[in-house]
Amino acid sequence: MTLHRRAFVLGLLVAAAIVPCDVLAETATAPFAVQAEIVARILPYDRGFSERVKGQVSFLLLTRAGDADSASAAHQMRRALQDVGKVRDRPIRVDGIDYSSAPELTAACRARDVNVVYLSSGLAKDIAAIRGALSDSGILSFAAVEPYVAQGAVLGVDVANGKPRMSINLAQARAQRIDFPASILKLARIY
Q1: What's the CA gap between 107 and 66, in Å, rounded?
Q2: Can you tell me whether residue 166 is helix, strand or coil?
Q3: In the chain, at which residue ranges do the beta strands (DSSP E only) sit?
Q4: Distance between the two ends of the chain, CA-based, in angstroms?
Q5: How confident is the model over 7-62, as pLDDT tens digits?
């Protein structure tokens, strides 16, 4: 390896090391259209879906206030969900809010009869509080950023070898009263 090439590689490694980890992990890990399609297909497999969803399937897109990337991700997800249009035969309704606190999230979910909370990028520091707010709710938490699943979101999607791959936090799914059958769990990476 030449001296210039070594210096270049060393520079890249130093640059990667000084960038905060949460910045590197804060981009959506799968295309928004893929995320929307997967959540629309998997949601009816939750054994409580028919009981909880009577008319429309209500999504709440959660963003970080003042974070342009978070707002952009939520906007793109809104469009992708609108393109999907339905979960089985039920129309999709999409609302959005900036995350401020767990009690406000709980109140917004109740007021809007939410079925799915989409965790946009920029929320890494709030996952524990969001996880607590959604416990025992029957609401599916769906992460734009797959590493959020290990931290406490129920479902996430990333792309591996050019193919979408689901991740499910099984303990959190149980805590949020989301019950997927073994046939779905076999298709996912389980945390």
Answers
A1: 21
A2: strand
A3: 57-64, 86-87, 90-99, 116-119, 140-143, 155-160, 163-168, 188-190
A4: 41
A5: 333 333 333 333 344 444 478 999 999 999 999 999 999 999 999 998 999 999 99
